[in-house]
Specification:
Layout (H helix, E strand, L loop, with lengths): L21 E8 L3 H10 L1 H4 L14 E5 L6 E6 L4 E12 L3 E6 L10 E9 L6 E8 L16 H27 L2
Helix pairs in contact: 1-3
Length: 181
């Protein structure tokens, strides 16, 4: 999906949103929302895919961490020196319903940022959860930024959506291990 706006403000109607601003990916996991939130936040390293596409450490050993509070960091700890590479800062911490992060790619300057919102919505029976990740704010990142890999808007948004899709598939697999289903 291509819509949205950065900055934590209320979303504008789809007709007013900048083209190419956001991606949205959803996955249904067979665990209650409190367990889905816990797995997403406390057990982020086991499900967050490895490799340069997803981590600063690339092929090197690294461990993802999410500090559970407003102002907490999403970061990767790399190597024996335990170098920390931050990707995000928690803006909203509302367990077990919602998490919002200010997201900064490693090649962003100080004034460049996007926003990742994760929503955990229980299904009717309460034994499963719809987890939706919305990564917005891309329209504020200049068209020639290295994060875009030289891609035009639609191709870049598609690529970003596929990366989040890969991560959510991995998250669903981790939740299946934890929930037994």
């Amino acid at each position: 999906m291509i819509d949205g706006e950065p900055g934590g403000s209320a979303p504008r109607p789809a007709s007013e949103r900048p083209r190419g601003d956001q991606v949205r990916v959803s996955v249904r996991v067979r665990v209650p929302s409190d367990e889905a939130f816990r797995l997403f936040t406390e057990e982020i390293d086991p499900w967050w895919r490895r490799g340069l596409k997803f981590r600063a450490s690339g092929a090197n050993p690294g461990v993802m961490h999410l500090e559970p509070r407003v102002g907490g960091r999403l970061y990767e700890e790399i190597g024996e020196r335990r170098t920390q590479v931050a990707f995000g800062t928690v803006l909203v911490w509302e367990p077990p319903e919602r998490l919002v992060l200010e997201w900064r790619n490693v090649n962003f300057t100080e004034d460049e940022r996007t926003e990742v919102e994760v929503e955990f919505v229980p299904t009717a029976g309460g034994d499963a959860t719809l987890v939706t990740v919305t990564h917005r704010g891309w329209s504020a990142i200049r068209p020639d930024h290295p994060v875009r890999h030289g891609l035009k808007v639609d191709a870049f948004i598609h690529m970003t959506g596929m990366r989040w899709n890969d991560l959510m598939v991995s998250f669903r697999e981790r939740a299946a291990e934890a929930g037994g289903g």
